[in-house]
Amino acid sequence: MIVDGRKLADKIKLKIKKQVRAKNLRPGLGVILVGNDPASEIYVKAKEKACQEVGFYSRKIVLPADTSQKKIISSIKELNQDKKIHGVLMQLPLPRKFNQEEVIKAINPRKDVDCFHPFNIGELALFKKEINLDQILAPCTAKGVVKLIKYVDSQVRKKVVVVGRSNLTGKPIALLLLALGATVTICHSQTKDLTRETKRADILVVAAGKPRLIKENMVKKGAVVIDVGINRVKGKLVGDVDFEKVRKIAGFITSVPGGVGPMTIACLLENTLLLTLSHTRPDVTSGRYGMKTIIF
Description:
By secondary structure, the protein is of the alpha/beta class. The chain has two domains: about 25-105, Leucine Dehydrogenase, chain A, domain 1 (Rossmann fold), CATH 3.40.50; about 125-260, NAD(P)-binding Rossmann-like Domain (Rossmann fold, 3-Layer(aba) Sandwich). It is about 40% helix and about 15% strand. It is built from ten helices and eleven strands. The N and C termini lie far apart (about 40 Å).
């Protein structure tokens, strides 16, 4: 069965839209885009459209690829101080000449909607198994992936293999799944006998950035396969999984596009709403939603 990420994302967006209206809120999302990477431009446009759909205020700052790191950090600080902005998003990846880690550190952790600031990654590592995915802040793609998994199989306490160890996808996905009781193995480019590892997985998450890396002989029959990869091959978007072949083996599989992408945007909106709520509560001096309380 093909898992429809758009369908689940639409349900999340409808819920957010109703909450915004009921509470008379105007959540604000600020996005910074550097350069003219086609994939990033598409995502930013999709995020702007999603904000309009649910009644959010959105602000976009576009900087040329030859801008300075000082200018990027200055733009981040501008959004940090903007009272109409509750969530700040730095569209990643940045062009290689920039120090991505230093740029992320410039985001106010209380407005770090994608949760990549070192403080927030630390909070993610401390999550316990009582987490409620709807009430925590976690990196948007990781959160979207885990929601998709729970959508098709509420019992996550299984053998999970994550292919990819990046700070943006692989590691956060693994941390969230660990918090939910899964037994997680992380594989990467230096893993010996990758096929042996992936074929043992009840749930296989692929975020390697290599087109059609996973073949049908690498997947356990009936496994849940979540493809996080987005690669452009001969003008066509493809994932890290050889979709047409693996779909014959998998029990559930996401497509590219239409799988994880829409869920990433839905979780971005959800995180923005959570940050907005944390800033509007008069009895709270800290600012971040944790498992049951604001823990910032």
